[in-house]
Amino acid sequence: MELTVGFLPLVDACLPILAREHGFAEDEGLSLRLMKDVSWATVLDRLLYGHSDAAHMVAPLAIATTLGRGRPAQPLSVPFVLGLNGNAITMRPDLAARVAPEGQLGDPAKVGAALREVVAELLAQGRPLRFGVVHRYSSHNYMLRYWLAACGIRPDRDVEISTVPPPFCADALDAGDVDAICVGEPWNSVAVERGAGRIVLSTAQIWRRGVEKVLTLRESVLDEKRDAVERLVRAMCRAGRHFVDPENWDANADILARSEYLDGDPVLIKRAISDRLLLSRGGEIVHYPDFMFQYREAANFPWVSQAEWLYTQMVRWDGTGFDAANASKAARVFRPDVYRSALIGTGEPLPGASSKVEGSLRQKTTVGMQQGTMTLESNRFFDGVVFDPATQRDYLAKLP
Amino acid sequence: MRIAIVDESAARASIIREGLATVEDCEIFVVTERRGLVARIGEIEPDIVLMDLGNPSRDVLEEYFAVSRVLARPIAMFVDESDDESIAASIDAGVSAYVVDGLAASRIRSLLDLAVRRFNAFARLQSDLAEARGQLAERETIDKAKRILMDSRGLPEPKAYAEMRSAAMSQGRRIAEIADAIVTAHKLMGAK
Questions:
Q1: How far apart are the C-alpha atoms of A7 and B121, rounded to whole Å?
Q2: Which tens digit of pLDDT belongs to each residue from A269-291?
Q3: What is the mean pLDDT of residues B6-27?
Q4: How many other C-beta atoms can be found within 10 angstroms of the C-beta atom of residue B58?
């Protein structure tokens, strides 16, 4: 059985890569081929035109494609979440110095309040602050916008947000094309190493358990290759367990750094894997737990409520208006049924529910399970607002 | 019709340009610079944009097409779903095409076909070149291995070559692989 998986060279493409490299896919009788590209547009094209069976993808793009945003609609399915968070906001050093404390990650509300003053100042001078994100339909874009708006900074009115491909983020900061970027690793660290930027926030501070990359397939391919996909899900779960074990960090960083994968510096990759960040050049390395979140708490389970949250943000920023039919189409992109069917009877924990109220947990909570036991930690949004998928319209009305 | 070819490879861009030069009423612009891409496209006001799939700026350009009000007419990827076959062919060839709304489908299809042929021609040229380079490197390795056998075992040249050939035949490998093994082994044994 064979599957080809498209990916972009980012640390969070780790699970399919490690599933192949450590023989976890092979143990499942699956031969895994990986196909590297340099833009999400090409990863998506190859998926839609059958060059790949599955793809590492920014989660909102899977929903946007299903809803036909920007191109004819094609139904996509997500049976597995490749990870939560792992992104950061990096600012030009002069801007960072004005809004964030030295030597530590800032507090999102405080950084936002300070930033608001800078934004007002620059607006008065007719030169709005500019942010770069990796894709218009990326979690980076939605997390950044969520944070800015909650701090009283209105995206598209007070600040400009445009697309900058990850490998060019450091260049764009350096050249002054943008003042800040929201990107995944290793690209924040690359900017820091070059002295082009300072990391001021991690997206995990904005939403403690924010959905990030997902494994995406065409719905028809998922149906045709269901058996192979379930094998891949099991192999990637094993890869997740391997990935979070400190014993394996060095070896995994070396694998990911290879030219056929990230073609990057294993030192920077290991930092991301181990939730360590060098915030500014010449500074001390900071440990921020759960910066990347690839396995614990059934991190890979595709919660329908995550897809629904992404849909509300799409409506919010595309200005298209909430549509109940589209909301349920978006919800159906995430396929917990496939995840369950792949892992039933294994040692992996399976939640009892398929949807949850996002952002409602402030402390450790034991949840009802179909299989295994699990304690969830805080999943708060930094502003304390809770997303109940049953009342999406009210949620949208409440947001600034 | 105004066509923009966005390609960081100047060589490929010129091959495509040459191929499209035969099309009537057609003005072609080549953009190879990454910086200022969006502004340049705004100036060109193209009807069609051709871009190679390996260009990291595709996401930038797609965003621009989706949200920019600068261009008078919106640009979408390809024309409509009925063009699926030509889209598939272009993806196979490694080119993406963006077309302004309202351009005649037949015209676009023939243009795309032309672009796809040029992309394929370029890919062939490259693989010919790679093959030629590979052959050259192989010949050098075989010569080196031959000299090693001549020096170390005092064999005359035709005999050294015949030894390698018979080893290749008996092991079902290519003579270049045998030569490579000899050169590697020789290096490992500490030869200079």
A1: 27
A2: 999 999 999 999 999 999 999 99
A3: 86
A4: 27
Q: Are A164 and A18 found together in one domain?
A: no
Structure tokens at A269: 């990759």
Mean pLDDT value of segment A300-316: 98
A131 assigned to some structural domain:
yes
One domain for residues A112 and A193: yes
Taking a contact as any Cβ pair under 8 Å apart, which residues of chain B between 79 and 98 contact chain A? 80-81, 87-88, 91-92, 96
Nearest by CB to residue B81, choosing from A45, A72, A175, is: A72
Handedness of CA A316, A319, A320, A323 (dihedral sign): positive
Which candidate from B53, B63, B92 shows the least CB-CB separation from A163?
B63
Give ipTM to 2 decimals: 0.90
B56 → closest Cβ in A38, A49, A51:
A38
Query: Which residues of chain B are within 8 Å of residue A49 when distances are taken between CB atoms?
Result: 87-88, 91-92
Same domain, A73 and A100: no
Please tell me the pTM assigned to this model: 0.88
**Which of A261, A286, A311 corresponds to the end of one domain?**
A286
Residues of chain A with C-beta less than 8 angstroms from the C-beta of B74: none
A178 and A103 in a single domain? The answer is yes
Helix (H, G, I), strand (E, B) or coil at A198: strand
Tell me, yes or no, if B70 comes closer than 8 A to chain A by beta carbon. Answer: no
Q: Are B119 and B13 in contact (CB under 8 A)?
A: no
**Does A102 lie in the same domain as A241?**
no
Does any CB of chain B come closer than 8 Å to the CB of residue A319? Answer: no
Residues A78 and A12 in one domain: yes
Distance CA B83, CA A280 (A): 50
Q: Considering the domain boundaries, does residue A372 fall inside one?
A: no
Chain B touched by A73 (CB under 8 Å): no
Cross-chain residue pair A41–B96, CB shorter than 8 Å: yes
**Does residue A23 contact residue A230 with C-beta atoms inside 8 Å?**
no
Largest distance between two CA atoms of chain B: 78
Nearest to A168 by CA among B14, B58, B143: B58
Closest chain B residue by Cα to residue A61? B59
Residues B8 and B97 in one domain: yes
Is B76's Cβ below 8 Å from some Cβ in A? Answer: yes
Contact A37 B60 (CB under 8 A): no
Tokens 């010919």 belong to which residue? B128
Q: Are residues B29 and B120 in the same domain?
A: yes
**Closest by CA position to A206, among listed A182, A237, A185:** A182
The verdict on residue A314 lying in a domain is no
A190-228: buried (b, 16+ CB within 10 Å) or exposed (e) per residue? bbbbeebbbbbbbbbbbbbbbbbbbbbbbeebbeebeeb
User: Last residue of a domain, which of B89, B109, B127?
Assistant: B127
Q: Do A11 and A72 belong to one domain?
A: yes
Indicate the helix (H) or strand (E) that contains A56.
Answer: strand A54-58
User: How do residues B66-124 score in pLDDT, each as one tens digit?
Assistant: 877 666 666 666 545 556 777 788 888 888 888 877 777 677 777 888 888 888 888 88
Give me the helices (H) in A79-129, please.
Answer: 93-99, 108-124
The tokens describing A350, both together, are: 């399976």
Domains held by chain B: number: 2
